[in-house]
Design a protein that fits this description.
Elements: H1 2-19, H2 25-31, E1 35-36, E2 45-53, H3 58-68, E3 73-77, H4 79-84, H5 86-94, E4 98-101, H6 114-128, E5 135-137, H7 146-154, E6 157-160, H8 174-183, E7 190-194, H9 201-216, E8 220-222, H10 224-229
Parallel strand pairs: 1-6, 2-3, 2-7, 2-8, 3-4, 5-6
Helix pairs in contact: 3-9, 6-7, 8-9
Length: 236
């Protein structure tokens, strides 16, 4: 019996991981009230976000596609890569997209002390040149200790995850990536894709399809801060 229960728990976990039921977001919002997963809005807006960049090959491709579709996005940048590719950061900014903090290193924050966490957070902020207001943070892998999230909030950051994440660093099939995002593509959704992984070709191809589908549904793709400004207080 215990074995069967264990199998059932694993199966449910995989279901949640790969299917991402939109209704489950309410549970996460209740468990982690200081994290933004989506924005409740009556306006037909969706936020695009890209992690782990900048990348000298894939970031320019993403920027070109966004320009072709007149779409805006938020780029969560890794501090070490910002210092390595400052010209890419300049291109993102000049195109009118939003810059955000994705920590200094491409690895978990969990092994870092609070002092180390704060140091890396500030190093990335300085490298990007973030303004004092509208600062966004997304922990690497989407995981950080509660104390670290409190430190980020004390520095003026809003911690943002999302509601449509096709796990593109794991290189799932194209049909799954498109299906997962389109399934959750409603006003207020925050989409997570990656331009800084070793091979972002599937992510880029998925982006094109999602932009076409979003336009068909009458949605406008904006930065996360713009989506936050469109929030409403009424709950679902």
């Amino acid at each position: 019996m215990l074995i069967l229960i264990g199998i059932a728990c694993v199966a449910f976990g995989l279901f949640v991981f790969w299917i991402e039921p939109i209704r489950l977001v309410r549970v996460f919002e209740w468990l982690t009230p200081n994290v933004v997963y989506r924005v409740r809005t009556n306006r037909p807006l969706v936020a695009l976000s890209f992690d782990d960049g900048p990348h000298p090959v894939f970031t320019p491709q993403v920027l070109k596609i966004l320009q072709n579709h007149n779409a805006k996005a938020t780029f969560f940048l890794i501090g070490e890569r910002v210092l390595r590719y400052p010209e890419m950061v300049a291109q993102i900014k000049s195109a009118g997209h939003e810059l955000a903090n994705h920590y200094s290193k491409n690895g978990s924050t969990l092994g870092h002390s609070n002092a180390e966490f704060l140091s890396y957070l500030k190093k990335t902020e300085s490298a990007i040149g973030l303004a004092e207001t509208s600062k966004l943070f997304r922990p690497p892998g989407g995981v950080a200790r509660p104390s670290q999230l409190r430190l980020a909030k004390a520095q003026g950051y809003i911690c943002v995850l999302g509601t449509a994440y096709p796990h593109d660093p794991m290189h799932p099939p194209m049909w799954y990536m498109e299906w997962l995002i389109k399934k959750n593509l409603v006003p207020g959704t925050i989409v997570i894709l990656h331009d800084g992984i070793p091979d972002a070709s599937r992510s880029i191809e998925t982006l094109s399809q999602v932009l076409v589908e979003g336009r068909r549904r009458g949605l406008t793709f904006v930065s996360i801060t713009e989506l936050l400004r469109a929030s409403r207080t009424k709950t679902d």
